[in-house]
UniProtKB/TrEMBL annotation, chain A:
Name under which the protein is recorded: Proton-conducting transporter membrane subunit
Membrane topology annotation: Multi-pass membrane protein
Keywords on record: Cell membrane, Membrane, Transmembrane, Transmembrane helix
Chief site of localization: membrane
Regions that span the bilayer: 30-51, 72-101, 107-125, 132-149, 161-183, 204-229, 274-292, 299-318, 330-349, 370-391, 403-427, 460-480, 516-539, 562-581
Gene source species: Actinoallomurus spadix
From TrEMBL, chain B:
Pfam family of the protein (one): MnhB
Transmembrane segments: 7-28, 109-130, 136-155, 176-194, 200-216
Membrane topology: Multi-pass membrane protein
Protein known as: Na+/H+ antiporter MnhB subunit-related protein domain-containing protein
Domain Na+/H+ antiporter MnhB subunit-related protein per the UniProt entry, residue ranges: 111-190
Organism of derivation: Actinoallomurus spadix
Automatic annotation (TrEMBL), chain C:
Name of this chain's protein: Cation:proton antiporter subunit C
Entry membrane topology: Multi-pass membrane protein
UniProt keyword list: Cell membrane, Membrane, Transmembrane, Transmembrane helix
InterPro entries tied to this protein: CPA3_antiporter_subunitC, NUOK/Mnh_C1-like
Subcellular localization(s) per the UniProt record: Cell membrane
Family membership noted in the UniProt record: Belongs to the CPA3 antiporters (TC 2.A.63) subunit C family.
Keyword Transport (UniProt): no
Lineage start: Bacteria, Bacillati, Actinomycetota, Actinomycetes, Streptosporangiales
Transmembrane segments: 6-22, 29-50, 70-95
Keyword hit for Mitochondrion: no
Length: 583, 233, 113
């Protein structure tokens, strides 16, 4: 059953690539959407099964004998199955959005989207580290192509190239780490390696962890591995951005968490503080860069950087309650950010530009996208009962218990900055507040061929559903319980190893978690209250003189120079390693 | 960022990375040592399955799922080459024969050698694919030979002949179907080393031809219209 | 001296990154990227080496013969295919950058903002 969720989209992709050129476009759309719908249902069933007992499938029947196997397992615990389901749901939204979109190149776009789904599902579900590398690469290769899809635009191909080079470099560093682990443990499965790590040399294990995490942290856009993200998101087609920001980037954090708990748990004492340091810097720098942008997609991209930093911080507490919070935050963020990207896509379709100042006041009549930006901004600010708020509340509570008093304020600042920037866009574009700006005269492709007379419902419905769903997530108690159960299983290394290698029981005791705490509500309110001045001050043209040199320097650092990004990546690995050893 | 600043960041990073790596490298087992538990298991399993080439057994049987991912990477990147190197609005594509890309004025000896080598190379490619379960080689290696064989025609200076010999839609379909069959075999079956080798050979051969086709077109046939030339810097 | 081969792999990785950082040509950057990946081949194969071992193909040796680790060889094979395809794609992007921007010197490319 689990295999089918990977095989089905891959097979339909293959058929579409082979025969799609002779099919009419609506049929291609219907086939692709129908396939993803089927995968969604299938993964729903897998999730239901996994909630009763995690599903382990050894491919090709290479079941372990005596605790070792020569094969590769797929492991669908509730966290993995849930994440795969999220992938399918977002792909569904992206495909519905693209019905009237991207009228070019046979059916290759659809084939690539389906392959992308298959790749992300396989990456999430695999129980083998080298296999994870392979599917990481598959995911990345498809992502490069999708980013560069509008190959006639100079910024597009440049952004895609930067993305490709930096991501691949990260992946190769990961492979070096896999090599070190293989040499020492003689295994490749998460569980098999995890069972043999205790008692290994501490230095080797720490370095291996640093190297293995590098590729995943590049994907997760943790500072200083984050440079590619804005370059790629700003130029990728809108439906692709939905998948990138909604789930692909977050899969990097998932991979770090999975590698840690399935394999390294307890063997790398510095992991928590090191990941937390990266998380804090990422959350804050992403927020600041977000405020500084005027290209709407680029702004949303930096907001993703910031929020992924918060998720990383949640994972770094290395505690099941905090992990549950991070997962919930991820869910809420996926809904809100996807909706925002879709709304930005409708702006691009209308006005052939995404420059915030040029769009000044021009969105007054676009009620649905305007509402999405408002709701999205409030959701990012952490307004209760949004999913981001509920997740943040759970994370803060766990951080408090761990003595990390600074985690809650960092989250509030990140929310306020990113939400303030989004609300500023809402005020300026959809309300016409603030001085009107001069244009840059750089026009982008509308992504639909001729401009549409009115926006079709297929472009708006996914945004409404996703944003609407995300802002009430905090009310769904059953889902919060499900996620905390999933997190409880996720952090239980012994259970994971037993379930994978000997079919043993995998139960985790998890107390029910409640986001409705006084501190949580206050934190959410603080985010909203602080976002307002960020938005209003942002409408004023110049940055205060005092800050200008720092701002200029920050902008200059995000230069689009691929060699520079590579240098930062190297420095990032060194820094992460140093943190692991000293923290 | 200035060159010097970039280099400074790099030097710091590289120094740190080097220290980390050396720390780890000296804790690895000695080079050439005897500790290979997974390798020994793979050998035992391959012999039990009667696959004499253990690497093929690992690739196509024991860890076939890795190869499924890898095949899909190949498939996706061929699609990617088609997408990224397509003729876009501001460009037009010329016919292969239009610009005198051959048959070029080359020595007859060169042309004859190319024509003579073509069938031999194809045969060797098929041989390498077909014997992948027994001897070194297999679908990947053989596929590369098959894919490059056609390009001997280009080396003889006859681009139009190459163009005639590779109907792109057929290669696209062939590649896609090979990838599809491979996914089914890889996820459903076990112990199917021979058919999987064949599929990989087909897929690799087609993918190489497709990707190279796109690069050839960019280099030889696609012209940017002067009026709409991309914004320079 | 028995760790020298591992260090060689690390050296190749750093050399590749050095090339990427200092390069003035995007095609060169892509090729340097495959140099960094070569480091992974070297590392994998050195890890799998066994003194006195031969290729893990049993068509002309006894099943009890001493062979090197076949798993790393399979991994390296996968790795090579990944490298070839990624390189092809990135070169395709470099071709398009050259066409659209008129230069492939990263220093000359305008920032993406």
């Amino acid at each position: 059953m689990v295999q089918a969720a990977i095989a089905a989209p891959a097979l339909v992709a293959v058929l579409l690539a082979a025969g799609g050129r002779w099919l009419p476009r609506p049929l291609v759309d219907a086939v692709a959407t129908g396939t993803v719908l089927a995968v969604t249902v299938l993964l729903g069933a897998v999730l239901a099964a996994a909630l009763r007992h995690p599903v382990v499938a050894w491919l090709g029947g290479w079941r372990p004998r005596g605790g070792v196997s020569a094969g590769i397992p797929l492991v669908a615990d509730p966290m993995a199955a849930g994440l795969a389901l999220l992938v399918a749901v977002l792909t569904l939204a992206a495909l519905v959005f693209s019905w009237r979109y991207l009228v070019e190149v046979q059916a290759i776009y659809h084939a690539l989207m389906l392959l992308f789904t298959a790749a992300m599902c396989a990456f999430v579900l695999t129980g083998d580290l080298f296999d994870a590398f392979v599917f990481f690469e598959l995911m990345s290769v498809i992502a490069y192509v999708l980013t560069g899809y509008k190959a006639e635009e100079p910024r597009t191909v440049h952004g895609a190239l930067n993305f490709g080079v930096i991501n691949s470099l990260g992946a190769y560093v990961t492979l070096m780490g896999i090599g070190l682990l293989y040499a020492r443990t003689g295994q490749l499965g998460f569980a098999a390696m995890g069972a043999r790590l205790p008692g290994q040399d501490h230095r080797l294990v720490t370095v291996a962890f640093a190297l293995v995490c590098t590729g995943f942290l590049v994907k997760a856009a943790a500072v200083p591995f984050h440079f590619w993200l804005a370059d790629a998101h700003a130029v990728a087609p809108t439906p692709v951005c939905v998948l990138f920001s909604g789930v692909m980037v977050e899969l990097g954090v998932y991979a770090v968490a999975r590698t840690y708990w399935a394999t390294f748990a307890g063997a790398v004492p510095g992991a928590g503080p090191a990941l937390a340091s990266l998380g804090v810097v990422t959350a804050l720098l992403g927020g600041v860069m977000c405020v500084l942008q005027r290209h709407v997609k680029r702004l949303l991209a930096y907001s993703t950087v910031s929020h992924v930093g918060v998720i990383l911080l949640g994972v770094a507490a290395l505690d099941h309650a905090s992990l549950a919070g991070a997962a919930y935050y991820l869910l809420g963020h996926a809904g809100v950010k996807s909706a925002l990207f879709i709304a930005a896509g409708t702006l691009l379709n209308r006005f052939e530009t995404l420059d915030e100042r040029e769009l000044h006041g021009r969105g007054r009549r676009m009620r649905v996208p305007g509402a999405v930006f408002l709701i999205g901004g409030l959701g990012l600010a952490g307004m209760p009962p949004s999913g981001l708020w509920a997740g943040k509340s759970l994370m803060d509570e766990a951080a408090e218990r761990a003595g990390w008093w600074w985690a809650a304020p960092v989250g509030v600042v990140a929310s306020a900055l990113t939400a303030g920037a989004v609300l500023r866009v809402w005020l300026r574009v959809f309300r016409g507040v603030g001085p009107s700006g001069e244009g840059t005269d750089e026009h982008e492709d509308t992504e639909t061929g001729p401009r549409m007379s009115r926006l079709p419902w297929t472009m708006l419905a996914p945004a409404i559903v996703l944003a609407g769903g995300a802002v009430v997530l905090g009310l769904i108690t059953g889902l919060i319980h499900g996620v905390s159960h999933a997190a409880g299983l996720f952090v239980d290394q012994r259970g994971y190893v037993a379930a994978v290698l000997s079919g043993g029981a995998w139960h985790a005791a998890s107390e029910p978690l409640h986001p409705w705490t006084a501190a949580g509500v206050i934190g959410g309110a603080a985010g909203v209250v602080l976002a307002v001045p960020v938005a209003v001050l942002g409408l004023r043209r110049p940055a205060p003189r005092l800050l200008r040199p720092a701002v200029d320097r920050l902008r200059a650092a995000h230069s689009g120079h691929v060699g520079e990004y590579a240098a930062w990546l190297t420095a990032g690995v060194a820094l992460f390693g140093l943190l692991l050893f000293t923290a | 960022m200035s060159h010097r600043a970039r280099f400074a960041v790099f030097v710091i990073g590289v120094a740190g990375l080097a220290v980390l790596y050396v720390l780890a490298a000296f804790r690895l087992p000695d080079f050439g040592g005897r500790f290979h538990p997974y390798g020994e298991r793979a050998v035992t399993s391959a012999i039990a399955e009667r696959t004499k080439n253990v690497v093929s057994s690992v690739n196509f049987d024991q860890r076939a799922f890795d190869t499924v991912g890898e095949e899909l990477i190949l498939f996706a990147s061929a699609l990617g080459a088609v997408v990224l190197l397509r003729t876009v609005r501001r460009e037009r594509e010329e016919e292969a024969g239009e610009h005198g890309y051959g048959p070029a004025d080359v020595f007859d000896a060169l042309r004859l050698t190319g024509y003579a080598l073509l069938p031999v190379t194809l045969l060797i490619g098929v041989y390498i694919v077909a014997h992948g379960h027994l001897s070194p080689g297999g679908g990947f290696q053989g596929g590369v030979v098959l894919g490059t064989a056609l390009h001997l025609l280009y080396l003889t200076g006859d681009y139009p002949a190459l163009d005639r010999l590779r109907p792109v839609p057929a290669f696209e379909a062939g590649e896609a179907l090979a990838a599809g069959v491979f996914v089914i075999l890889g996820l459903a079956g076990a112990g199917l080393v021979i058919p999987m080798n064949a599929m990989v050979g087909l897929e690799v051969g087609c993918a190489i031809v497709l990707v190279l086709t796109k690069f050839f077109e960019q280099a030889l046939l696609v012209r940017t219209d002067e009026a709409g030339k991309g914004e320079g810097t | 001296m028995s760790h020298l081969p591992y260090l060689a792999a690390g050296w190749i990785l750093l050399a590749g990154i050095f090339g990427m950082v200092t390069s003035r040509n995007l095609v060169h950057v892509v090729v340097c990227l495959s140099v960094t990946q070569s480091a992974t081949y070297v590392l994998l194969l050195t890890i799998g080496y066994r003194k006195g071992g031969t290729a893990p193909v049993f068509s002309d040796i006894k099943p009890t013969g001493k062979v090197v680790d076949p798993v790393v060889q399979a991994m390296a094979l996968t790795d090579i295919v990944v490298n070839a395809t990624v390189t092809a794609l990135l070169l395709a992007l470099a071709v398009q950058v050259a066409k659209r921007r008129g230069t492939i010197d990263p220093d000359q490319l305008r920032p993406l903002e």
